[in-house]
């Protein structure tokens, strides 16, 4: 490789385009080290001096109760960084106690802490030819991080350069053998990994089944029973000292005699959750009562073989084998077992599926051992007792756009950044600490890396490609191939300088065979257009170098690439989309500097329209339509054949499930590991649909799949169902008409002197009280009076004040459903059992009061959307699967029916006030009552008239969004996974 001069222009500092005259370096042994080239930096100018720095205050609150979760003033960041990125980096990654001199306060300190540690380790281990090369390495790494071109995974930011153990890996795979000592070691090792905030996966198939005998003659417990202990441990340990649950993966081979019991574990527990919820217990994710349910802290996957999948297709029998002898001890119908997996996934999203033979066909180190398991998010797959550190590149930083619709993906600069990042990732293994000795030994011997990318969905849209299209898949495949080919090329160059990985000699033939498989897949790939063809050409050149240099030098790393969820680090890089995912929606929620927020149309939409040939005035009109409607349907001037370019993960034009599978298949042949991604299916999807997804995933060569059918789990926010349909029907005609700005001022409508009412006596957790609810003769609830404790006591006074506040609000037109949505599930003492058969458990007095009011005064569809049902309705659901009686509910409950159905009395009460009459067509919709938007997921829900099946963040209470097979909070950066 000879020295040359790059002639590409630097462009804007924000997008990190290269400088003129950047000198390329020459990897090799000239001075027993790498010659590091400049990509973005200028000699004599530090990257920090090329940006404008600003001071900001970071104050993060829990929107549910207004409490401050985190606060730090005067932090220093580039002015180009978003509020979200600043908040997340400050709260998650700055080290030192807040308020002390040791606390980090500038992004410069954070980046210096990491890159200087990498440089020092690289110099110590002989990676660089000269001190000047080490200097260039440090500055280029700092520039790429400063400009959000890539990011290391979270453990690097947590630990590197600190006094604590420098753990750099987020993904771990453990092992367990058929002995009590090994099982107890499993519990301990998993607990230590959870304590550090990471996740782990393992395969339990070595443990003998419950259908086999112990050496003492008794029956074995089986792996499913030992899963209970591990699940309880995971549920007890607060991962990383936070409130989120641990992330773990449990795998069982399809030929294990206990595989049917394994498949049933989550299904049985999901039925238990529904029964307990209907009995009044708090079974939401993170609820007080969910801990009584087992197997909820792990993702489960069945490891299937080609033999099994062929038996499914042929309708043949399949043998379940003894763990001790390998003999077939039972035969089952393969198609029936496969159907049982799909039925379980349909019911509760578990188990997922992993394709064992496909995984091991691409295994670079088979002489050391088979790949039997994965990390919790399923992207890291390699040897037992190993780990992988991750880093992801922001693909949008490599898209060059001249503003006139002419675009290209800068393959040359992308490859150079990949070389830089892979070098840094390998250096980290030299100084890293590991949670167990076995993991440390394996990782140092095989040096597994996991480079990946984020923002693929945004890149495809910006370049005018539909996510589910041949062109989109070709571009994704080309980029993935170039990334992995360049990574292995640099790995071979590093092997020449600092040596191949310790396990390479015994696995050399297999490793080179897998490299040729990648190269052959690259050669066979179809080129589609002017964007992907140059990238394929660069990838082809990279793979030729891999084969040539690998034959000569071997390889430094047994694994190079994966596609991880990129949850928190995706937010750190201000990415619109995570990992390999498509865009969530066309309209986003954006926080503003200095407070406040606004909704904006994705910046990628105008780029896509320009790429498709639309004129500026057409682009402006289409963007305005999207801002008003949240979609492109009937946008002025937009051609119908271009609608698919703007298809997203949610909404009326959501990408089909098979579109997700095909995208995974396009990238998989060019990855060392696998892909973290869940295939979402609509609630109406059938078991056959899930079977087809699993079959197609195997046929197309993916390594693993997980599915999620909307609303299949109880531990998620409820979908509005019929309320959503009603909301769509109400908004559809309005959307077609010009919007008018009308200002409404509430007026108070008082109740008549004599009005009907209901007095209810109740007991909550042993505390007794009375509630009187008075109504308008023809218009619902108008006032509430509460009597608790003795007159003159603090509690009685607070109840009186609370009653007046609620009553005045009702009389000014605040819908009852707004109060119900705000005050149900509020927790404080007294709480516990009640004497009301319809509300058996209450988390507080106000929780009981508003559940009772909802049952008495709200129509069935409204309160059902809020998850509130009577005892008879819950019983009907258990018997028929539906809460509604035949014919459904047509009207709101009237006062006469309430008198007849409950031992309560109609009363007269002192005069109070009344709600304002609603203007025609201005009635509040139950689904949107009191709805406040806190992030892009919630904005998409309102825009698209649906509810995303995602948990609420344990830290700040906002709705999370899916990132791969995990979830990430846009508000504070918390994740439900291991990265």
Automatic annotation (TrEMBL):
<feature type="region of interest" description="Disordered">
    <location>
        <begin position="1"/>
        <end position="33"/>
    </location>
</feature>
<dbReference type="InterPro" id="IPR000788">
    <property type="entry name" value="RNR_lg_C"/>
</dbReference>
<comment type="function">
    <text>Catalyzes the reduction of ribonucleotides to deoxyribonucleotides. May function to provide a pool of deoxyribonucleotide precursors for DNA repair during oxygen limitation and/or for immediate growth after restoration of oxygen.</text>
</comment>
<feature type="domain" description="TSCPD">
    <location>
        <begin position="755"/>
        <end position="855"/>
    </location>
</feature>
<feature type="region of interest" description="Disordered">
    <location>
        <begin position="872"/>
        <end position="929"/>
    </location>
</feature>
<feature type="domain" description="Ribonucleotide reductase class II vitamin B12-dependent N-terminal">
    <location>
        <begin position="58"/>
        <end position="148"/>
    </location>
</feature>
<keyword id="KW-0846">Cobalamin</keyword>
<dbReference type="GO" id="GO:0071897">
    <property type="term" value="P:DNA biosynthetic process"/>
</dbReference>
<dbReference type="GO" id="GO:0004748">
    <property type="term" value="F:ribonucleoside-diphosphate reductase activity, thioredoxin disulfide as acceptor"/>
</dbReference>
<keyword id="KW-1015">Disulfide bond</keyword>
<keyword id="KW-0170">Cobalt</keyword>
<dbReference type="InterPro" id="IPR050862">
    <property type="entry name" value="RdRp_reductase_class-2"/>
</dbReference>
<comment type="similarity">
    <text>Belongs to the ribonucleoside diphosphate reductase class-2 family.</text>
</comment>
<dbReference type="Pfam" id="PF12637">
    <property type="entry name" value="TSCPD"/>
</dbReference>
<feature type="compositionally biased region" description="Polar residues">
    <location>
        <begin position="897"/>
        <end position="907"/>
    </location>
</feature>
<dbReference type="GO" id="GO:0050897">
    <property type="term" value="F:cobalt ion binding"/>
</dbReference>
<feature type="compositionally biased region" description="Low complexity">
    <location>
        <begin position="908"/>
        <end position="919"/>
    </location>
</feature>
<keyword id="KW-0560">Oxidoreductase</keyword>
<dbReference type="InterPro" id="IPR024434">
    <property type="entry name" value="TSCPD_dom"/>
</dbReference>
<keyword id="KW-0237">DNA synthesis</keyword>
<dbReference type="InterPro" id="IPR013678">
    <property type="entry name" value="RNR_2_N"/>
</dbReference>
<dbReference type="InterPro" id="IPR013344">
    <property type="entry name" value="RNR_NrdJ/NrdZ"/>
</dbReference>
<dbReference type="Pfam" id="PF02867">
    <property type="entry name" value="Ribonuc_red_lgC"/>
</dbReference>
<dbReference type="Pfam" id="PF08471">
    <property type="entry name" value="Ribonuc_red_2_N"/>
</dbReference>
<dbReference type="GO" id="GO:0000166">
    <property type="term" value="F:nucleotide binding"/>
</dbReference>
<protein>
    <recommendedName>
        <fullName>Vitamin B12-dependent ribonucleotide reductase</fullName>
        <ecNumber>1.17.4.1</ecNumber>
    </recommendedName>
</protein>
<keyword id="KW-0547">Nucleotide-binding</keyword>
<dbReference type="GO" id="GO:0031419">
    <property type="term" value="F:cobalamin binding"/>
</dbReference>
<feature type="domain" description="Ribonucleotide reductase large subunit C-terminal">
    <location>
        <begin position="169"/>
        <end position="708"/>
    </location>
</feature>
């Amino acid at each position: 490789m000879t020295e040359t001069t790059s002639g590409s222009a630097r462009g804007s500092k924000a997008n990190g385009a290269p400088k003129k005259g950047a000198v390329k370096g020459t990897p090799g042994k000239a001075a027993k080290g790498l010659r590091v080239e400049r990509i973005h930096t200028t000699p004599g100018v530090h990257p920090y001096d090329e940006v404008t720095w600003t001071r900001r205050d970071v104050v993060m609150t829990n929107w549910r109760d207004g409490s401050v979760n985190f606060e730090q003033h005067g932090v220093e960041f580039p002015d180009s960084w978003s509020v979200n990125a600043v908040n997340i980096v400050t709260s998650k990654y700055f080290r030192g106690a807040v308020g002390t001199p040791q606390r980090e306060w500038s992004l410069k300190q954070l980046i210096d802490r990491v890159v200087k540690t990498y440089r020092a380790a690289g110099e110590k281990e002989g990676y660089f030819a000269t001190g000047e090369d080490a200097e260039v390495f440090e500055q280029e790494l700092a520039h790429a991080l400063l400009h959000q071109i890539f990011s290391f995974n979270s453990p690097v930011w947590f630990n590197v350069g600190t006094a604590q153990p420098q753990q750099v890996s987020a993904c771990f795979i453990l092992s367990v053998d058929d002995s009590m000592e090994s099982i107890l070691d499993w519990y301990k090792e998993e607990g230590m990994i959870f304590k550090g905030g990471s996740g782990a996966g393992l395969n339990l198939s070595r443990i003998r089944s419950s259908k086999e005998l112990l050496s003492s003659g008794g029956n074995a417990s089986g792996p499913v029973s030992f899963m209970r202990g591990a699940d309880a441990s995971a549920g007890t340990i607060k991962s990383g000292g936070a409130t989120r649950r641990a992330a773990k993966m449990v795998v069982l081979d399809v030929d294990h005699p206990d595989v049917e019991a394994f498949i049933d574990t989550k299904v049985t527990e999901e039925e238990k959750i529904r029964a307990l919820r209907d009995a009044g217990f708090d079974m939401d994710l993170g609820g007080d009562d969910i801990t009584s349910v087992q197997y909820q802290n792990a993702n489960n996957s069945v490891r299937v073989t080609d033999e099994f999948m062929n038996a499914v297709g042929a309708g043949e029998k399949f043998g379940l084998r003894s763990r001790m002898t390998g003999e077939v001890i039972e035969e089952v119908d393969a198609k029936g077992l496969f159907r049982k997996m799909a039925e379980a996934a349909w019911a509760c999203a578990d188990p997922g599926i992993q394709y064992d033979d496909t995984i091991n066909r691409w295994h670079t180190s088979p002489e050391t051992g088979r790949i039997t398991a994965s990390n919790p998010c399923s992207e890291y797959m390699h040897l037992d007792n190993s780990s992988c550190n991750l880093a992801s590149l922001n693909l949008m930083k490599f898209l060059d756009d001249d503003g006139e619709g002419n675009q290209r993906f800068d393959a040359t600069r992308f490859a150079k950044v990949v070389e830089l990042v892979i070098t840094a990732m390998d250096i980290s293994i030299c100084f890293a600490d590991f949670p167990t000795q076995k993991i440390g030994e394996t990782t140092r011997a095989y040096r597994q890396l996991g480079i990946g990318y984020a923002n693929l969905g945004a890149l495809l849209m910006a370049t005018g490609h539909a996510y589910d299209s041949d062109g989109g898949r070709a571009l994704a495949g080309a980029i993935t191939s170039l990334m992995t080919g360049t990574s292995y090329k640099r790995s071979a160059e590093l092997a020449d300088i600092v040596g191949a990985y310790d396990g390479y000699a015994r696995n050399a033939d297999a490793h080179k065979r897998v490299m040729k498989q990648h190269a052959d897949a690259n050669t066979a790939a179809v080129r589609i257009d002017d964007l992907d063809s140059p990238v394929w050409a660069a990838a082809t050149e990279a793979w030729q170098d891999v084969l040539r240099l690998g034959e000569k030098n071997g390889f430094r790393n047994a694994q190079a690439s994966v596609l991880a969820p990129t949850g928190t680090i995706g937010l750190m890089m201000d990415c619109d989309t995570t990992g390999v995912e498509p865009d969530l929606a066309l309209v986003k929620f954006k926080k503003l500097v200095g407070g406040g927020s606004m909704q904006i149309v994705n910046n990628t939409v105008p780029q896509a329209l320009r790429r498709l040939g639309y004129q500026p005035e057409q682009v402006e009109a289409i963007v305005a339509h999207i801002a008003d409607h949240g979609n492109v349907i009937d946008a002025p001037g937009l051609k119908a054949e271009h609608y698919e370019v703007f298809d997203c993960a949610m909404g009326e034009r959501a990408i089909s499930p098979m579109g997700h599978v095909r995208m995974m298949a396009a990238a998989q042949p060019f990855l060392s590991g696998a892909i973290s991604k869940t295939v979402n299916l609509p609630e109406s999807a059938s078991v056959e649909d899930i079977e087809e997804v699993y079959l197609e995933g195997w046929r197309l060569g993916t390594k693993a799949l997980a599915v999620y059918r909307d609303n299949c789990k109880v531990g998620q926010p409820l979908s509005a169902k019929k309320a959503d349909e009603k909301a769509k029907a109400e908004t559809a005609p309005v959307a077609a008409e010009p919007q008018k700005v009308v200002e409404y001022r509430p007026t108070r409508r008082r109740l008549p002197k004599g009005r009907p009412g209901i007095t209810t006596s109740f007991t909550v957790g042993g505390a007794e009280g009375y509630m009187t609810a008075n109504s308008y003769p023809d218009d619902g609830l108008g006032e509430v009076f509460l009597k608790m404790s003795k007159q003159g006591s603090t509690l009685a006074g607070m109840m009186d004040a609370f009653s007046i506040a609620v009553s005045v609000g009702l009389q000014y037109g605040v819908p009852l459903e707004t109060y119900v949505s705000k005050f149900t599930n509020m927790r404080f003492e007294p709480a516990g059992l009640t004497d009301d058969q319809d509300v058996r458990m209450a988390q507080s007095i106000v929780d009981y009061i508003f559940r009772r009011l909802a049952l008495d005064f709200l129509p069935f569809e409204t309160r059902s959307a809020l998850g509130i049902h009577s005892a008879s309705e819950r019983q009907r659901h258990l018997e028929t699967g539906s809460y509604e009686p035949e014919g459904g509910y047509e009207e709101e409950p009237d006062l006469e029916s309430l008198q007849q159905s409950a031992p309560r009395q109609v009363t007269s009460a002192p005069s109070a006030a009344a709600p304002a009459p609603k203007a025609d067509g201005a009635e509040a919709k139950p689904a949107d009552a009191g709805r406040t938007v806190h992030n892009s997921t919630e904005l998409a829900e309102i825009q698209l008239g649906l509810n995303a099946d995602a948990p609420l963040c344990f830290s700040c209470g906002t709705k999370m969004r899916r990132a791969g097979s995990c979830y990430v909070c846009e508000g504070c950066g918390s994740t439900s996974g291991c990265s």
